[in-house]
Amino acid sequence: MSKSTIGLVLLLxxxxxxxxxxxxxxxxxxxxxxxxxxxxxxxxxxxLKISNLILRxxxxxxxxxLAKDQVSDSEVFDKLEGGDEGEALxxxxxxxxxxxxxxxxxxxxAD
Length: 111
Hints:
Blueprint (H helix, E strand, L loop, with lengths): L2 H53 L4 H8 L8 E6 L5 E6 L2 E5 L5 E6 L1
Antiparallel strand pairs: 1-2, 2-3, 3-4
């Protein structure tokens, strides 16, 4: 074999090794990202359940007081679901507080 043929074969082997290593690295990164997302999702679900236990029965003004230092004023607003006779909601950031007729929290959901 000539030197140029050997050089081309080595170049091809190095190129293929580079792509294989890149593919393995990408697979590891995707697996790590997926595991991180699953962990965050479990934490978020647990926080929603705990929020429902702790905040149920609080008034909307109490929720506003708790949230005032945590989120900007533009992220806290009242909303009616289903028109004028719908359910009253208090939205704080990404959380939606469903309120009863007395403006007390019935349940907390994610937006």
